[in-house]
Amino acid sequence: LPLDERLKRRVVDGERNGLTADLDEALAAGRPALEIVNDTLLDGMKTVGELFGSGRMQLPFVLQSAEVMKSAVAHLEPHMEKADGEGGAGKGTIVLATVKGDVHDIGKNLVDIILSNNGYNVVNLGIKQPVSAILEAAEEHRADAIGMSGLLVKSTVVMKENLEELNRRGMAARYPVILGGAALTRAYVEQDLHEVYEGEVRYARDAFEGLRLMDALIA
Ligand code: B1M
User: Fold this and answer.
1) Residue pair 197/177 in contact by the 8 Å Cβ criterion
2) What is the rounded end-to-end Cα distance, in angstroms, of the chain?
3) Annotated catalytic sites, by residue?
4) pLDDT digits 0-9 by tens, 40-62
5) Distance 77 CA to ligand 1 centre (A)
6) ipTM for this model
């Protein structure tokens, strides 16, 4: 198989053997690390999602694919472009979390990498975070924004409840919120949730849009 196909297969098959050798070969051929993630590995995860969704792949195998994806991203991370030499973290702070009840964190961790590499200080709280933990971290770190990720349909409801809690606590004006994850749509966030939230709430389709939004919010 061509290298690209091979890498994609490794994600789909959850096959770690030979992974780093293939990644190094792709890097040596001059492919940017982020492009390998976005164009090849994420394509593999998409296939995994389709197979799982249609009942042709069982959960333990999805987990193996997720592990391969994580090791690949960890291997590629040092090769990703940094925005400034110092590794800055001076542009602003975002508190980032996967919402309550949701364990999916590959997308969130990509957002962390992209923002950190572009000069933001990211306080990554991890998965299954109750709103109280997110809001406390935002206050403690004097965050400029809050980022919430969630992939389950029920997480879209949790996100709405979280925004209502920010309203209730009178925090909405101080915290712009960026939402991302496969179950969301732009319309749900920028129309429905926009109606709900008394502050600014925006939808990020991918990690790069998350970065563009942070740049716009902080400017
Ligand atoms: Co789960 N899972 N899963 N799963 N899983 C989905 C989400 C699902 C769509 C699969 C399917 O049915 N086709 C489905 C949800 C259906 C629904 O809600 N209607 C599903 C299900 C059902 C479940 C379980 C309930 C299964 C079960 O137990 N029976 C269970 C849930 C457990 C829980 O959360 N309580 C479960 C478990 C798991 C694993 C643990 C096995 C594993 C996760 C491992 C991990 O993350 N550590 C897993 C995986 C891997 C998936 C799929 C296959 C792939 C997700 C992924 O990592 N994609 C997924 C299928 C799918 O998404 N279509 C699926 C790659 C990742 C980079 O994409 O996170 O979307 P994503 O991030 C993108 C953008 O969304 C965006 O940027 C990224 C790209 O740049 N983004 C942000 C994300 N967050 C952002 C935040 C931002 C900005 C952008 O700013 C704050």
Assistant:
1) yes
2) 46
3) 102, 104, 155
4) 999 999 999 999 999 999 999 99
5) 21
6) 0.98
